[in-house]
Amino acid sequence: NPCGAVGTGVDGAITDADITAFRYLLIESDSLPLDLQLALYQRMRLPVAAIVHSGGKSVHAWVKLDCPTLDKYKEVSSRILASLKPFGIDQANKNCSRLTRLPGAFRQIGHSDEGLQQLLWLNPNAAALSDDALIRFEETLKFPAIEERPLLAVAKASLERYEHMRANVGKLGI
Questions:
Q1: Residue 20 · residue 3 · CB < 8 Å
Q2: Contacts of 63 (CB under 8 A, 6+ apart)
Q3: pLDDT tens track of the chain, all 174 residues?
Q4: Where are the strands (E) in 14-146, listed by range?
Q5: Geometric angle at alpha carbon 83, from 130 and 78, rounded to 5°
Q6: pTM of the entire structure?
């Protein structure tokens, strides 16, 4: 999201007050394997403008919002992140001032392989998320298509199984 030349935060840090347009929500997960992150982004039916490998454990998806105000941005981003929480999406990215490295930047801390941030997919013509599209997105996570199980139910069951396994590490059969 575009911001002023100098941040108003401590030591010039960018804050939400410095953002001049509320264009994108950054979504990512450090807990899911990269291939599952990509599969989730492909399936979630949100207007993703870009997908960028972070040079670390995550793939960043830039969801096109184009919100008119900070309050609207907070409302929409909170709804999206709450819907994606059961899938392991990082809930800390609710701030419009959340920054990400651009493709070609090198990640020094927490990098994997060469640590280079890479553009994986670009859709410069992504339409901004409408209120109707947000409702449809939320519903697709709750209700199944004719031939499949509800994605939300599958994710919750998987997380419950994982938590059970973590709680019983070292016990026979786990």
A1: yes
A2: 24, 25, 26, 27, 46, 47, 48, 49, 80, 129
A3: 898 888 999 998 889 999 999 999 999 998 888 888 998 898 888 999 999 988 778 899 999 999 999 999 999 999 999 999 988 899 988 888 876 767 777 666 666 667 778 889 999 999 999 999 999 999 888 765 544 556 666 777 788 888 888 888 887 765
A4: 22-27, 48-53, 59-67, 118-122
A5: 65
A6: 0.76
